[in-house]
Amino acid sequence: MSSAHTKTEHGHTDHNYLNHGSGIWSWMTTLDHKRIGLMYFATVSTLFLIGGFFALGIRLHLAKFGAEPLLDPDTYNKFMTFHGAIMVFMVIIPGIPAFLGNFVLPIQLGAKDVAFPRLNLASYYIFIAGAAIAASSMVFNQVDTGWTFYTPYSTAKTSNGVILLVLGAFTMGFSSILTGLNFIVTTHKLRAPGMTMDRIPLMIWALYSTSIIQILATPILAITLLLIGAEKTLGVGIFDPDLGGDPVLFQHFFWFYSHPAVYIMILPAMGVISELITAFSKKTIFGYRAIAYSSVAIAAVSFLVWGHHMFVSGQSTLAGIVFSIITMFVGVPTAIKLFNWISTMYRGTVTFEAPMLFALGFMFLFTIGGLTGVFLASTGMDVHFHDTYFVVAHFHYVMVGGTLMALMGGIFYWFPKMFGRMTSDLGGRISWVLIFTGFNVTFFPQFVLGAMGMPRRYFDYLPEYTNLNQISTVGSWLIGLGFLVGLITIIHGIFKGEKASDNPWGAKTLEWQTSSPPPHENFINTPTVTAGPYDFR
Amino acid sequence: MTSVSSSSEFQHQHHFKSAEHQYASSKQGIWLFLCTEILMFGGLFVGYLIYHSLYPTVFKNGSETLDWKMGAVNTVVLLVSSFTMAAAINYVQRGLHKIAAIMLALTIACAGAFMVIKYFEYSHKFHVGTVPGKFSLVDPTCGAGGKRAECESKISALLKNPAELEKNHVNAEEVARLKAVISQPKWEMFYGFYFVMTGLHGIHVVAGALLIFWIFIKTLRRKVGPEYYTPVEGVGLFWHVVDLVWIYLFPLLYLVG
Q1: So where does this one cross the membrane (chain B) (predicted)?
Q2: A479 — phi, psi (to 5°)?
Q3: Positions in chain A whose pLDDT score sits under 50
Q4: B19-254 is classed in which CATH architecture?
Q5: A182 and B29: CB-CB below 8 Å?
């Protein structure tokens, strides 16, 4: 560090992590967690646009505005597969932990970097390699299995493109494991003096719980994907009934990862929301411990509920009942969080800047998603709703309404810290209105469609579903427009935004105690922590 | 540390308080990674357990066609390599670079020996035709989309041809076992597991050997020593896990049946 900084205001011509080295090469080889976080930001945003393109294609096709269908069935299946695979494996899973987590976690802990900076950069490149391998399947041999690669279709019937997509997902899983490992060690070993485990911000508790899931669940996905590869290339027969295998075993293996993966997506989002709610209520969070431990509880329960994806797969009634009960149990820690956020806002000084709007949007949409999850967890109702648009609406409310709302909120909240500039609050609000409205217009009709019996994944539908499908498609354009406005607001903010002060929101966690943008090693002097993370009043 | 000085220059990275702090962090990271390795093999073990209970005769017959003597030799080879690896860590910690390098070289030699023995086992399987699903069915007599019964004729044909049996080192005892194997439907299932499990383990042996080679070079260049031996210990732990996985694979595949 060249000059001596005082801890108060300093100008933005100062030395910071953005101008610590210059040129593209200094970014490509950086070991700074903040820069790696921003590299994830750029990558994930690009992939999000591609995944969104496929989504709009699907919706436009299903609106049936023209006499001729927009896509032929085969192309439709491929659109659906790439939309799902890109959004799940490349956007929502890495979105918050790898991008916001990487940027925020070490600063919130008062650390100079993550425990293994080189491993962190390696994780990024492994992710890029995985995404490239998966994307190559779009060029060489397109996949039409859906992102779940269900056997025996994926192993015995369809093209060999599955191998590429599966190998890409395997590689990205490796990246996910390494990031999780890095976060766990960082949280254990690199906390600033005085930062005891009951003083770490709730974002960290969420990321910590997420990392545990990443470490424990991803290896099972890895072996499952390797087995699909082995089935395709060697015909080992573990999932192929023709050779004696059991396709339902694949579902068990797959959901043993992929259900916990749902919490890899949503737990970090809940961490973001905890930060936003307290910062914009100017009030100490209500029930710090309850929120912290409920993250760990969700992580723990997440491993015991995979069977609810298989109620109609022929598993025993007893297994169905047990999985049903445990699944509903997830509602308990989730509701604990929600009630604590509401209690935090109660009698707080609540202001409604863009990040807070996204936080409230999260709470609204996630609640609908969560409550409809209870319907699906009930075995009797699930038989009716299974594989209908009700499920599609449910998981979009949870994953998109939850995770993407939190991601947008997190971006607008930490943006001043990342770039030392403010985004236009009006731009953020317009983006929120469009996304929030569009989201409900898109997915609420799908609950109705599902209850009416429209099956998911289908290329075509009965005439009575037409109106609701068209409403849904119009909603999808609003969402697209909303994200476009958000993107413009962010790009405008990077180049033309007002200069931000060190702590524009008046938040209390450690990242706001350093300059905006932070210096290369986060703090000029390692901070000493003497109180909890949300010491408002 | 009880020991002699070493020429290795070591400073801890900027974000750690001290070398001990960095060492403790690295160790935690390595252990977490090893957990994921165990869990990945765990998926295969679960699958093995399920199919073993579904097709006990297939697994029994399949197991009997494996050469337990070769498996046993390989177990001993890996156990010895674990010992030499542990010794190497100890010597590096004490600054005895020369003998540490010898121990590491021995460990790599053991890994090589393991793979050579594995090569003999695999190539014999390829010759007689006890290979996983798809390839066991590949046979000129099958034609495109041929029937299973005909496709199994590759092994049947071998069993009828004394010259081929002689050439492929198949003795009377093995003939009896192979007959028992193909008498059961779904017999390829066992070989599916055998090749996936030992194959994945084999990849780990090769990766481990490459990592040990990296440590070997570091030791020769005295980049590790009493003050800094984290990579040696980390690679050592990885190697022990590779050994440990084999210690479970060997009885499960070769002996239990």
Answers
A1: 30-51, 72-93, 99-117, 193-217, 237-256
A2: -60, -45
A3: 1-12
A4: Up-down Bundle (1.20)
A5: yes
